Predict the structure of EF-hand domain-containing protein.
Amino acid sequence: MSCELDGRKESCLCFLKQTSLRSGPLEGQINGKKKEAETLPSPPCSPSAVPPREGNTVVVTPVSASVSCFYLPQGAPVPRSTAVGQVIARIEATFANFKEQRATIHDMGKVSKACGCPLYWKAALFHGAGGETTGFISASSLVDTWNKLSLSCFDESSKFVYLLAKRGAAYLEQEDFTLLLQDIVDSHPGLTFLKDAPEFHSRYITTAIQRIFYTVNRSWTGRITASELRRSNFLQTLSLLEGEDDINQITDYFSYEHFYVIYCKFWELDTDHNLSIDRRDLARYNYHDSERATMPSVLFRGTSAQREGRMSYAEFVWFLISEEDKRSPTSIEYWFRCMDLDGDGVLSMYELEHFYEEQHDRLEAMGFEPLPFHDLLCQMLDLVKPQQPGKITLRDLKRCGMAHVFFDTFFSLEKYLEHEQKDPFAIHKEVDRNGQELSDWDRFAAEEYDVLVAEDSESEHPDER
């Protein structure tokens, strides 16, 4: 499709003119030379990761439209009332029924209810009262913990962080969630079948942790704060586990079916089954085998995989969710960081051309006639409509609502061809049983799970087939 040069010619020329000044540095990057100013995308959830930038400005998701008068990271203080005394009385009464008035992790369901907490806070309460060290907690240790918590934490988010975090820390790191998720694996009725497959416990837990940080840790620091918990649906989703025996109905974070899809996709690529893949393995995803393997090379930048030449299973979780759902805020930031080779917070013409080259070559190899880059550039500018001519920023991509089409054009050949066959602005919505709109990831996971189950059934009963 050729570009109409009447109304858009000036915008394209302006883009070409402004980005031409950066040709030298980027060409050096493409030829394999490193630049000192380069900001490499750190591995998902690593402490060294930084939020995406727009120019010299760090992009941070706003807390709310209206900012309160005071900064209250632990929630708004409330008067200490008789409610605390009532909770302590219930704790002491509950422990009176335990042998030697001690509670193990298996007793913590009753203790959690005595504290007025959701059922699956039991691991957090056990950790907060020192249970991991001794294997049990006493009434006095929990009462002491509850008194301290009541003096400094005034909402669910701050209490949850206080209980589960390391001593003295005001944030949660990945390993802090291990006890919580192991308790869910051990006690949730929807995961009882995993008791006979302990080797999969760690894989399920790793997947759930990565999904939690992918959604909740919007600052990309690898540390979840109480403020980030408040802005997420994690605690609400955690409380839903108590009333839902089928864990697959809780699609956010905990679904076993979603874990099954992710792990099977990784297993197909991990041919030596050492829980890590290299660039060539990743290049085979969706049958896109490539000698140059541009996409995997970019994803390996700035990660432990760059040093070791391999990508871990945890990093693959981030890649797969981002690849299959390019509409979510985290996914948009993920791909923007991959494309912003020089780390200046702006996607230049040379960066776009660099990523389009491989798509162009693939299209030619398949017998298609690809668009010349200048025509494609005009299409992308029309799609994104950047606020400043010649500068495509992260804010532009989030605002335009078409980031998935933009990134598919440069990274996913199959999806790019699908977009070419339909109106990219057409609205097609699917909803779940509760009337909630399905995300692209939810839709992908449901379809892939059905395919995987069908394949397993055929392999087990070849005669019936």
Remarks:
- The mean pLDDT is 81.
- Residues 440-460 form the longest helix (21 residues).
- The beta strands are 53-54, 57-58, 102-103, 137-138, 276-277, 311-312.
